[in-house]
Amino acid sequence: MNLKNDWPATARSSLASVIGRKSGRTISVPVWFVLEGEKLYLLPVQGSDTQWYKNVLKNSLIRIDARGVEAKLRAVPVTDAKTVKSVVEKFRMKYGAKDVKKYYSKFDVAVLVELG
C-alpha cells in the first residue's frame, strides 16, 4: 500500500491508537488531522496535557486508521512555537476556526506522522 496515495485526505477524523505509558495497553482515541504531502499532522485537544500525547512521548509508535486505511508509524512531537502555530492554522482552514476554538483548549504542541 502506498500511504501517500491511499490516505483519505478528505476524511474529517481518524482513530489514533497509542500504548498507555503506565498500563502498557493500547488506547484508541478519535482525532482530527491535516494531511500535507506525506506529512500527517495531529493536534492534541488539550495540548501537552492531552493523555494520548503524553503516551506518544513515552512510546512513539502510533497506529492511525482513517476510513479503513490503517498504518503503524512513528509519531514525532512538535514543540516549536512557529511550527505549532502553522499546524493550528491548517486545522482552522480544514475544520473552521469556530470548531477549533470550541474543541481545542491549548496550542503548545502538535504531532507529526510521516506517511512516506
Task: Report what the structure shows.
Helices cover 29% and strands 35% of the residues. With 116 residues, the protein is of the alpha+beta class. A 7-stranded antiparallel β-sheet has the order 2-1-5-6-7-4-3. Helix 3 (81-95) crosses helix 4 (97-103). The radius of gyration is 13 Å and the shape is globular. The mean pLDDT is 90.
How would you describe this structure in keywords?
seven-stranded antiparallel β-sheet, 4 helices, 7 strands, 35% strand
Write the layout of secondary structure elements.
Blueprint: H1 3-6, E1 14-19, E2 26-31, E3 33-36, E4 39-42, H2 51-58, E5 61-66, E6 69-78, H3 81-95, H4 97-103, E7 110-114
Antiparallel strand pairs: 1-2, 1-5, 3-4, 4-7, 5-6, 6-7
Helix pairs in contact: 3-4
Whole-number mean pLDDT: 90
Q: What Rg is obtained from the alpha carbons, in whole angstroms?
A: 13 Å
Strand order of the largest sheet: 2-1-5-6-7-4-3
Helix-strand category: alpha+beta
Could you say which overall geometry the principal axes of the C-alpha atoms support? Answer: globular
Taken as a percent bin, the fraction of beta residues is 35-45%
Distance between the termini: 11 Å
Q: Helix coverage percent of residues?
A: 25-40%
Number of helices: 4
Low-confidence stretches: none
Q: Output the helix-strand order.
A: HEEEEHEEHHE
Number of strands: 7
Main sheet properties: 7 strands, antiparallel
